[in-house]
Each structure stands twice: as C-alpha cells, then as structure tokens.
Amino acid sequence: MDALIQLIFFLTLLTLGYAFGKFAEKRHYRSIMEREKQWMHIPTTTGRRVLGADSKVKNAHLVTGSVVISVDYFKRILAGLRNIFGGNVQSYETLVDRARREAVLRLKESCPEADQIVNLRLETSSISKGKKNQVGSVEVLAYGTAVYLQPAMTMDDL
C-alpha cells in the first residue's frame, strides 16, 4: 500500500512539474515572439561590415545581452531517457533556443536607438552542474557592435 501511495505521489509531482513547465515555456515563447516583432526594426548581422554601402557611421559601441535559464526536473528526466535510447534531446533544444533568442532580445533592448547591430556573436555555457555533471542551467551571452548612422543628406540640406 505504501509503495502505491509513493508511486501516486511521484506521478502527481511529475504531472504538476510537466504542466507548470509547459505553461512557463509557452508564456516565455509568447513573450519572445511579441518582443521580436517590437525590435524587428533593428537589423542584426554576424558580418563585420555595416549594412548599406553608402551609410556613414556616426557612432558605434559594444553591446551585450545575457540570460541564464534553468533546466527543470521533467526535462532532465526526458534527457536521461534520451541518453538510454539516443537521438536528439528535444527537451534541451527548446531550452537553448529560448536562451539564445532571449539574449539577442536583451542585447537589442540595451541599445534602442541603434540603427543596426553588426558582428553579433553568441557564447553558450552550462553552469551550476548537478549530480553526475548534469546540466543545471544554461547561460547565453550575446554581444555585438551597435552602430548609429548619420542621417542621409537630402536636397534641402544642400
């Protein structure tokens, strides 16, 4: 009887963890998509050159955005099962995807007046490893150069 109660308790916690984790992940994705639409006007490139050959740079400076996202137990259990059978660990793919997109958004939010961001780079690392070197949290750092362009000259300026 005790084993059955423990099993029901475990399955209840597992179900609650899954439901709350899915809810939090969906809410975060919704926030990311809304903010990506808001910041779409700042083009971002991994190239080193400014977009638009005839544009003159007025100012440029280094900008960063970072985020740390923790792995929930349900994803850790799914990843453990995937280790047995092999294949893509989809539970971690969404975690890293959310972290990268959030870091880029935070980078853009740090320079709202920039015309574009060039030389964008992303660094990913795992921190706070748990038992048996399991991933505890993922940190993503996005950095690049925010470029401010001189306004184009018009016929009225001449």
Could you describe the 3D structure shown?
The chain is α+β, with helices and mostly antiparallel strands and 158 residues long. Helix content is 44%, strand content 25%. It is built from three helices and three strands. A three-stranded antiparallel sheet has the order 1-3-2. α1 runs parallel beside α3 (90-109). The model has no long low-confidence stretch (mean pLDDT 87). This is Heavy metal-binding domain-containing protein.
Helix/strand order, N-terminal first: HEHHEE
Largest sheet composition: 3 strands, antiparallel
**Percentage of residues in strands:** 15-25%
Number of E strands = 3
Which bin fits the share of residues in helices? 40-55%
Uncertain parts: none
